[in-house]
Design a protein that fits this description.
Length: 298
C-alpha cells in the first residue's frame, strides 16, 4: 500500500512492487497542501501559555495538560531527498521517505505511550502543514525559529520554558525502538540535574533535556554529527550546569544502522510495528531482487 500525505489513515508500509535499485521512482505525491488545524499550528517564540500547545479534547491527546513533563519530537516532513539522506546511497530517496514516515509514526506512538507527558513536534516552518496532517491531532506541531537543528533545539527550550520550570526533552524522530523506560529515566534525571543527554554510539545524541532555556547551549550544534556530544558537554561545563547521562543508544543514519534495526525488530516487532513492517518488505524485496539478478547466497 502506497502512502501519500492525503491518505492519513493508511499504514506506512512500502509497496510490494518497489525495487530497491538506484533510480527507482514510485511515490505518489499530493499536489495540494492540507489545511492545518489552526489550534495546532503555532509559531515558536510566542508568549502563549504552554497548555495552549496541546489539544484539549480527550480524543486528541491522552496526556494530562497540567503535567510538567514535555517530550518534543524533532521532525521533518517525510519528503524524498530531505530526510535520512545518508541512506540514499543504498535505497532510493522515495523509499527512504516512506521509511522515515514509519519511524516518525512509531516515535509518536512511543511518546504517547508515556504517562503524564505532553507531546509536541518541533519542525521547520516549511514542514508545518505536512506534519500537522501527519500528526492528526495526536500532538501539537510547532514551527521553529530559524533554520537547522541547532535553531530547532533552541526553539524547543525557549518555547516551552514558562513561568514555572518544565522538564522538557527534545527527542529525535528515528529511535522508536528505544525502551520507554529510558525516556522515563531521563525525565527523572532532570529532577536532580540541569541537563540530561542521551548519547549515540557515533558521537552525537538522540535526546537532550533541560528545565529552562540556555540560549547558547546549541550554537552551531546538530544531533547527528560526530562531535555534537563533545561540543554540547563542553558548553554545559562552560555554563556550570550539572549533567546526567541517559543510556547510550543508536539511531538510524547509515545502511549498517538499518541492518541492525531490522535484526532487532525481527525479534521484537512490537517495539516499532510500522517500521518493522517496512523493514520486512524491504528485506523481502531485496531477496527477490537478488534472486532475479543471480546474486543471492548459494
Amino acid at each position: 500500500m502506497l502512502l501519500s500525505l492525503n491518505q492519513p489513515s493508511q499504514e506506512c508500509v512500502i509497496p510490494k512492487h518497489r525495487v530497491f535499485t538506484s533510480g527507482a521512482r514510485d511515490l505518489t505525491d499530493s499536489n495540494t497542501s492540507p489545511t492545518p488545524d489552526a489550534s495546532l499550528c503555532l509559531k515558536s517564540g510566542s508568549a502563549q501559555d504552554d497548555a495552549k500547545l496541546i489539544p484539549k479534547s480527550s480524543n486528541q491527546v491522552s496526556h494530562s495538560p497540567g503535567s510538567d513533563r514535555i517530550l518534543v519530537i524533532m521532525a521533518k516532513a517525510p519528503r524524498p531527498g530531505s530526510v535520512k539522506t545518508r541512506l540514499s546511497s543504498s535505497i532510493p530517496p522515495e523509499a527512504v521517505a516512506d521509511f522515515y514516515r514509519c519511524l516518525l509514526e512509531d516515535t509518536l506512538a512511543l511518546a504517547r505511550s508515556l504517562k503524564n507527558v505532553e507531546v509536541a513536534i518541533m519542525c521547520p516552518l516549511s514542514d508545518l502543514n505536512d506534519l500537522v496532517h501527519l500528526a492528526r491531532n495526536r500532538a501539537a506541531v510547532v514551527a521553529q525559529n530559524g533554520e537547522g537543528l541547532a535553531a530547532g533545539l533552541t526553539s524547543v527550550f525557549s518555547r516551552f520554558s514558562g513561568a514555572r520550570p518544565h522538564r522538557t526533552i527534545a527527542f529525535n524522530s528515528d529511535s522508536p525502538h528505544l525502551p520507554p523506560s529510558v525516556l522515563e529515566d531521563a525525565f527523572e534525571t532532570l529532577a536532580t540535574h540541569d541537563v540530561v543527554v542521551g548519547p549515540t554510539h557515533d558521537g552525537g545524541y538522540y535526546l537532550v533535556g533541560a528545565k529552562i532555556s540556555y540560549p547558547t547551549l546549541f550554537a552551531n550544534d546538530g544531533m547527528g554529527t560526530s562531535t555534537a556530544l563533545e561540543r554540547l558537554l563542553s558548553r554545559t561545563r562552560n555554563l556550570q550546569l550539572s549533567v546526567g547521562l541517559a543510556d547510550s543508544f543508536y539511531d538510524i543514519d547509515i545502511a549498517e544502522d538499518l541492518t541492525r534495526l531490522a535484526a532487532e525488530l525481527r525479534l521484537t516487532p512490537s517495539k516499532a510495528p510500522r517500521t518493522a513492517a517496512w523493514l520486512r518488505e524491504w528485506e523481502l524485496t531485496a531477496e527477490q531482487s537478488d534472486l532475479r539478478t543471480g546474486t543471492a547466497d548459494k
